[in-house]
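note to self — DONT lose this again. spent like an hour looking for the file last time. sequence + predicted structure for the chain T wanted, 471 res
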Amino acid sequence: MKNKKERLILGLIILIGAFLRFFNLGKESLWLDEAYSVKLANVNFFQIWDKVRTSDVHPPFYYMLLNLWIKTFGDSEFAVRSLSVVFGILSIFMIYKLTQLLFNKNTGLVAALILALSPFHIQYSQEARMYNLLVFLIILSMYFFVKLLNNPNGKILIGYLLTGTLLMYTHYYSVFIFIAQNIYLFIYAIFFKKDKNLIKIWLILQIVLFFSFFLWILVFIKQIHSSAASWIPPPTINLLGQTFLSYSGSEYLLIMFLILLLINNHFKKSIQNGSFLLIWLWIPIILPYVISIFFMPIYTIKVTIVAMPSFYILVAKKINDINRNFIKWSFIGAMIIFSLIILWQKNMHIYKEQWREVAHYIDAQAIKGDVLLFNEPYLQIPFDYYSKRNDIKRIPLNFNTSLELTEKEKNDLKGITEKYQRFWFIQSHITNAKIVQKNLNSSFKKVFCQQYKNIKVCLFIKRLKPLNAHY
C-alpha cells in the first residue's frame, strides 16, 4: 500500500513537472543559439559531424538527436523545444531514483519535487539546446556510479560506459563530472571500502571511456583553442553567489535552502553520501572558476547546471531529516508557493530575443529593392528561420571590432551600401553597431528605429547629398 502511495505521489510530481515545462512552450521566439541548433540539426549526420568539427564549440550528440527529433515532429518552436522537455521530465524521475539509492524514497520524492518546480531547470527545459540532455545524462551517470560502488556487475558497467560516452559527446563540462567521480571513487575505495579490486575496475572503465572519446580529442583541442570565449567575462565572487541564486530561483528560496543546509546537520549518519554530493556540487563550480581566473574564462552559470542536481538532493535530504512534520511541511509548502510565484512572474515577461516579431515586421514593411544588413553574420540564422521573404537581399557584416573600423572595413562598408537606396540595419549581441552606424551617417539618414527584446532594427535611406560633400 505504501509503495502504491509513493508511486502515485511520484506520478503526480512528474505530471506537475511536465505541465510546467510544456506550458507556453512555443510562446517566445527561438533565440540565436536555439535557431543555430535547428539549422545545424536540419542537415544529415555526416554534415552535422563536419560542421560541428569546423565551426562549433560543442560535441555533436545533441544535434544528431535533434535531427532525428525534427524528422519525426517537425521544427516548430514547440517541437524543437519539446526534446528538452522530455529530458527534463526524465530527469525528475532519475533524480528520484538516484536520491532513493543514496538515502530513501521520501528524500527521493522531495528531490523530485524540487527539480520539478525549479525555475532554473524549467528555463532550460524550454530551450532547444543540449543542457537538459546534459543534466539527464549526469544524473543517470551518477546513478550507475553509485550502483557500481556497491555492485559492479556487467549491466552496471555497460550502463556507466554508455552514459559516460554520451556525456562526453554532449558537452565538455562533463569532464568536471568525471573528475568529481574519480576523486570520490578513490576516497571511497581507500577510506571507506578499502577495495583495491574496485580501483582496478575503475581504471579500466576510465581507459575505455578515454578511447571512446579518442576520435574527437583532436577536435576538442582545436575547439578549445579557437573558442577562447572572448564574450565570457572573468568571474567574480558575486558570480558564485549568483550561481546558487539561479539554482534556487529567488533570494527567498536561497535563504531558505541555506538555512536548511547550515542548521540541520544530519550528514553525520551518512558521511559517505554527504561527501559524495559535496564533491559533485563543488568540483564543477570551483575548477571552472579557477581555470577562468588563471587561464581562460569558461565559467558561466548555465554550464554549472551539471552541479545543480547535487544541490537539490542535499536540500531534499535536509528537508526530509526535519523531525517535526509541521516544520517539514511548512518548508515544502513555502518552497512550492515561492517557486510557483517565480514561474508566474517569469511567464509575464519576455526573456528570449524576439526574432519572430522582427522577421514579421520587416516582411510586412520592406519594399522591393530593400536590403537587410546584419551587424554579425550569425544573426541571419534566427531571422531566416522566421522570414518568409526570399526577395530581400541579406548582407551580413563581419567587422570584428567594437572600437573603430579600419580603412579597409570602411571601404568595404561603403562598397556594400552605396548601391542601395534603403536598407534595414539589424543589430544584436556583441555589437559593433554604433561604429557601423557612425560610418553610415554621412551617406544615409536614419529614418527610425524599432526596439525589440535584445534586437534593434533601424531603417536607413540614402541622402540626396552626403553630409561631408563640399561645393
